[in-house]
Amino acid sequence: MSNSTPSKKYSRTKRRPFTKEELSLRFKPFQEKIDIHFGNEKLLFQAFTHSSYVNEHRKRPSDDNERLEFLGDAVLELTISQYLYKKYHNMSEGELTKLRAAIVCEPSLVTFALQLNFGDLVLLGKGEENTGGRTRPALLADVFEAFIGALYLDQGLEVVEQFLSKFVYPKINEGAFSHVMDFKSQLQEFIQRENRGTLLYRIVQESGPAHNREFTSEVYLSSERLGIGHGRSKKESEQHAAREALQYLNKK
Asked: Which of 40, 108, 211, 234 makes the best surface tag, with the fewest CB within 10 Å?
């Protein structure tokens, strides 16, 4: 008499891989959100394909996103370097290197990836899925780099720049990485190089309770106010005032 109970080996249901049509539907809202449509969608799908998904479905190792990640890392280094070089005329090589490192480090890349919900799109193997792979920082940072690599191959450097101008450069302009920048030193070097006189910082306002003070600083060159800044400490408010002064002087 045959045994009607299936063996464990065959009772488990194996997840089948997504079809091309299913992947196109999965990534359609994302492409609409970023207003970029891939000519070769296979590159887009590959950028979001983790090695665990490839292993689970016995695909070729080259089908995962690791090679694209390698390329995207280099593309990001180039584009970010160029942007910083053009934006901060008075920043030294060491300061530019330090700022770039803060922008392309893992925590920053994770922030960019989360901003666009990359975690929802990643193709993962079952084991990686069950252990929280969608929110793993290293995985998200790698996917962001892989996406940049795929975008570069499909659309070229100009479109990569357009993408970064929407989702990365604004954070630089908002001062998200100002903690690694010494604007006061940059301003001082600028003024000394031009022999324009002596800078003076003034704390013009303090507000808020003792545990949550806010300071407002102004920076002057002779009698001309160059910038104003706010911060939780006198030092921070002066840094922000110096940043505004640099922006003002670079426009003159």
From this structure: 211
